[in-house]
Fold each of these.
Amino acid sequence: MRGRIFKLALALFAAALFIPNPFWRAGMDAAALAALAVHDAGVLSGGGSLKFWIFPAAFVALAPFFSGNMDAAISGHTYSFPQLASGSLFLLHAWVFVSLCAFAARNFTAGEIIAAAEKAGFSGLGLRAALALTSARMLRRMLAETWFNYRCTRPSWKEALFEFDVLSGAVLRNTAAAAENIAVLLHIRNVKV
Amino acid sequence: MHKTDKVRLLVFTTVFGALWGIVEMLAGTWLHMMKFPFTSTLMAAAGGVILCVERSYTPVRGAALYTGLTAVCFKLLSPGASSIGSAIGIAIEAAMAEAVLTLLGVNSLSFFVTVLLVSLEGIPHFFVSGWLLYGRGIFDAYLKVAKQMQGFFGVNPDFWKQIAALWVGGHLLIGALFGLIAVRAGKYLRKI
């Protein structure tokens, strides 16, 4: 059920990206939000921080002072309500975007997303995810150790900054060595990819 | 493709993708917190270096995209809309690197060009994420408001060109520096 709702909302969101008529666009975005809210109303308030919304909201509220058909006045300045309405559509679309992300995060587990992606043609994604998590632990340790050694031999920040290519080379070489070891291990164990 | 090559492609792209994801999570988060200028360009250029070096180990079409896919998965582990923006950025960088490396092959010139172009990722990122996030017509609205504001504040109509030149220049400088690192790293890793 949640999979179907998500697909429907995603299809409506995608259609709204291409449709030129603003009324149809608003209708599709609203329908997408309604579909998501049917299953999980919490997603409507679950996406995006204040920092995320403040710039677009300010743009939408202030743009009518500068463009559009001026049909009103606010504190002695001309203002365009049609421009405000058209700007609100951008906010509505952004709301659908963050709600879709929040819906996916709240209603699907990582395993379900991987299984769906594998079904959609991204074969080997499960193995890739497991490998990424395992190698991440190794790489974090390697990065910490390389950074420690690098800083021990270059105590001043100036020196550390100017010889940054040495650090890059060491990190990339160590990563390649780790990958080589894992590849050999998978080959010896005859893991099917 | 031989089975050994398949294993190498899977492992190298995943491990280098994980490295990119970790670098984004650690250095990217730290630089963003410090409000360091050109943070996204620095991270894009670092990603470009990783993509180039990875491609020298698995010179197969699509390797940069697989590496980017792993890095995107990593970025999405950190919650919040800003990480979605970065994930879109990583996907665009991977696509750009894939196009250049497929076209020019694996050599010093392609490494330099890849990192240089990837450091300008902000341009396609702005258009792709703006379109995805706000939908059709957002760029017309930006242009209209910018034009009106230019008139309102009496700014020179060519002022935006100076700003754009400064922005592109800063990005290209970082791209060139990291491009040289990619070339040097590539040569060094081929030797050992």
Note: Residues 23 and 43 of chain B are 8 Å apart (CA to CA).
Amino acid sequence: MSGGGRPTALELAAEIRAGKVTSYELTEEALARVEEVQRNLNAFTDVWAEEALLRARDVDSAIRAGRLNTPLAGIPMAIKDNICTRGFPTTVASKILCNYIPPYNAFAYEKVLSAGLVAVGKTNLDEFAMGSSSETSCFSAVRNPHDTEYVPGGSSGGSAAAVAGGAVPLALGSDCGGSIRQPAAFCGIVGLKPSYGLVSRYGLVSFIPSTDQIGPMATGVADCAALLSVIAGYDPRDANSIPGHREDYLSVLDGEVAGLKVGILRDWLLGVDKGVRDAVEAAGQALAGLGCEVEEVKLPTSAHAVAVFYLLAYAEASSNLARFDGVNFGLREGDGGGLREMLEESRGQGFGAEVKRRIMVGTFILSHGYKERYYKKALSVRERMRSEFEGVFENYQALLCPVSPTPPFKIGEKIDEPLQMYLADKFVCPINLVGICGLSLPWGETENGLPLAVQLIGPVQGEGTILRLAKRLEEVRANE
Amino acid sequence: MSDITEKDVAHLAHLARLKLSEDEVKELYHHFQIILDYVASLDAVPDLKLSAEPRKSRTHLREDEVGESLSAEDALANSPKVRKNQFVVPPIIEDME
């Protein structure tokens, strides 16, 4: 059982296979909870009630006929609304794509379909995944299931709220600078950002192509590992897809952790919230108790991660979002005038404030005379960070640190202060910049009952190790 | 302090093909100051000496072969304006400077 006493997705799937319950029944129950979660938390942008039940019925027949025997077959789940789903709107929570219906499926969505999962709808997010609070959505803000006055984190806040709120046991999120791990931390669930290239980006509406990754969100570590096994894989349609075979992340969970060397990033704890600091220290002690060698390590250049990350985010966004021009797809305004007016009106009316800000700063730092100073400088510091991480991973198998410097903050608290919002990503964005993997694991709560979490970081394709460590830590917490 | 002016911000909006209100330009100008001041901290980080051997590229190219792709119908399905299997855009010539 996972926290809260609900059965895990893996347990439910086993019950389906044993004929004790059907996917149809679980999907019906999920849809009823989705309705409630939607009313209270605004976690979804679209709910596929009819389609999900039809699909659940098909999945039930396939399981009964012995044609489908995968570990998560029949389980209802949710899909972040920046992942393309053929025939169903994919809005990225932006007015500019509010009518977009993709003619193809994302790789990750194809994978969950072939594994027999049943999607019940698309989840809300920060517009174009640009944000850390899920407040910038054109469908309005998502709320934290633990206290609706607080943000659920972002940008995968809808997926996190849907899982933590009990609507579905699993969801897909995406993480370009912390967007799976930070909402997972704020909502008290497990979220994993895979190594860059482990899961194909094909069909993920692009924001920062050099860091974007799709990943799993779940109530517990084993479910998270099972969903990662479903979506990981080589895909020639993503030029950065890592070639070759992927591990079965579920089967490596029970391996030994004693003797593993884990670096604790203690200097990252300076100035962070006391509850967050205590959680990291306690997790460090728990790892030592499990026989890991826990030692302090330093990554000095990471102090500049937020500056580097946002410079690259601005630059890549300004270049990437040039495709939204009111011609091939999306909103078109100002059609009565010339081409320029149509472009400026469509983009001016279609994009929200944060998206415009990123396009504008990106246009500036890529412009003649500034590119060397800002964009190239950021690339150079990113390489320095990468060398530091590679050096540390020569001696350590994993790192331990916070996810967010603070517990969840209130809705409206940071929305008018972009830099304060960006600084919420200081411990999660370095992992995206260097292409490695990270996992957010719930670790206690604040005095007000809001979730706290710790982050485990692994090298490229170190998912098996951090999932195994997380599983052991989860057991320690459960026995406390 | 960055040397960007409000006029520069308005010019950038033009380059980025974004119609912005005066208030939006003012607000962005304010945020440009804060953001550019913050990222100036990178000036203190020494540049990496480029190694003689370039980092192995993680991007792989595919063979240039004809494969499956979207049908014209699918490719046009989301366009706001289509005529005879073509995307329709407003007149371009009048727009040239």
Note: The mean pLDDT of chain B is 87.
